[in-house]
Structures are given as C-alpha cells and as structure tokens.
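I have been asked to look over a protein record a colleague put together. Alongside the sequence sits a line of tokens, each denoting a local backbone shape. Please read both lines and tell me whether the tokens look consistent with the sequence. I do not need a full report, just your reasoning and any doubts. I have pasted the whole thing underneath without changing anything.
>
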Amino acid sequence: MPTEILNILKNTDIEIIASLKNILAGAKLNVAIVPHENPDGDAIGSALGLGEILADFGHNVNIVSPNDYPGFLKWFGSEVNVIKYSASKKEGKAAINNADVLICVDFNDASRAGILEKKILKFDKIKILIDHHPYPTDFCDFTISETTYSSTAELIFDIVNQIGLQNNITKNSAEALYTGILTDTGSFSHNTSRPNTFKVVSELMKFGIDTKKIQSGVYDNFSVNRMKLLGYCLNEKMQVFPEYRAAVITISKEELEEFDFNPGDTEGFVNYPLSIKGIVFSVLFIEKKELVKASFRSKGNFPTNKFASENFNGGGHLNASGGESKLTLQETLDMFTQLLPEFKHLLLETEI
C-alpha cells in the first residue's frame, strides 16, 4: 500500500483499509450512500463523487439524502440516482433495505442524518463511515475519521486511491469531489494548512474539470431573494461587539418567510462578519420550527467547537462548528451576549 497515503490517514488502521478494499473493490454490490441532513457542498460532493466512482467500478449505487439540498448544488453532471428521502420515502427505504453496503459520509453521529437515523441504526449489513469531523460515535462497522482533512471530499480521494479504485475516477466524480473541497474551505480561505489539500486538488484538475464553471455554479447561482436576505441581515440584523472581537446575526422564522426562504439560502452568511477588521468570532442564529440553529466561525485559534459543545449542544472543528438552542431566538441571543465575557480573554488573545 502507498506509504505516503497511510501516513496521511493517521487515525485509520491498515486493517480497515484492507477491509474496505475487499468490500468495495471486489464483487459488484448494491450500495447506498447517505449524507447528513440539510447537505452542504461537501456532503453532496462527497456522496456524488464516491457514488460516481463506485458506479464506474460496477456497483449499483443509490444516494439517499435525508432531505433536499440547495439549488446551487444541483448542477452536477452525474448519472447516479439521488433520492430525497423526505419526498420519496418508499424509494428511499427500498434503496437502503436492498443495499449490501451502507456508506455514511460527512457526519459523525447517526442523529445528523435526521429522519434517516433509525434506518441507519437498524441497518444490519455492512456499514461504513467516512468523515472528517471530530468525536465520531460508534455506529458503523468500519469508521474512517480523519479530522486533519479539509473536507470529507479530500479524504474520499485518498481512500479511493488507497483501495485501488483510482482508475474509476471520472471527470464527473472529480468535479464533485473538487466542489466538496471548494465549499468546505470557503474557496480555499480556511482549513488549507496541509499541502495534501492542494495536492489532491491538483490531481482532480488532471481530469479536465472546469474550475471556473464550478466556482460560478456554486457562488454565482443564487436567487434574488437570497441576495436581498443577505443585504437585510448585514444591514439590519448584524450586531458587532468590538470589545469582544465578535459579531452575531439573527434571523427569525418570519424574516425567512418574508424573503421566500429556500434550503441553502443562508449558506455562508456566518462568514461575512469575519471580513470586519478585528473580528475573530462570528455567529449565526436562525429560528426554526422547534429550535434555534446555531453556526459558529472563527479565525486563528479561537475554539468554536469548545464554545458550541459547552453552550449549544453542538461541536465541530476548531474554526467551524454548529449547535442548537431550545430557547427562543431572543433568549438565545441574550445567552450568547452573556457568555461573551467568559470567553473575552481567549477572543482578545486570538492571533490572526
């Protein structure tokens, strides 16, 4: 096995790679791939990229997404069947029940799959987890969890090479994996401290992908209402706390309705306050039906995952995490502002 890749997969035993090679590079199987609920670019890019590669090898592949994903991620060139479980439960159940192998990508706990959680936990054949988020729970037979990777898409590229399916990478799969890396690094603005990220990108570009087209497809493909919502949030709903080097944006259910919200419309909103001089911590609170969804982003070494896990029942990476609150939107905002003094020393000491 390539020593270089084994050194990169620091948390993965050689026995797991050997097992995956026997499973995925052997007999033709029925495979179901599941991304997390409300899939983002890395989740969909990873699922489609891996799905295309396995289909090219000869497996029968279905991607079963818990729910719909943003329109700006629907331009992929792919012939792999994508089932939106929330809209097609019968077809989704059949795809999972008939699968010989279930592969979970880009999430570390079955609960992150939303309405598919119980189906995943009850699946009694081979279950594989491929993810880059910390602290995975033990719900699969084979777990590959590599937290130093920029994205699950980058990780999948290395795994595919490790198990001998590199000749099954096509332009379509390369395009999907590149998109996963592009979106999870914010157009290569974060999570890019490892040379391997750019090495993988350079390899993907050899398949003739059009990086300008992908960039445009992801970032120049928004609705008018989405742009108006962004402007409204920055002008009316952003609060800046310069004494704590922090900022927060809140969006209510009524405001989402006013701007005809569609899935993915708020993608990336949390990053905008980090463009303000001196701000190292940005938070986005979005009011949902039964809870407030929280997104956290930071610069430098401020630990958003610590902030999220200790206060918002969440977690994630150092600079990018998520969580939730069962309080009202205003109560959640009040709690956040009350927490800032406790983290003031870390925020002021953060180097960027």
The first helix runs from residue 3 to 8. The first strand starts at residue 30 and ends at 34. The CA atoms of residues 296 and 321 lie 5 Å apart.
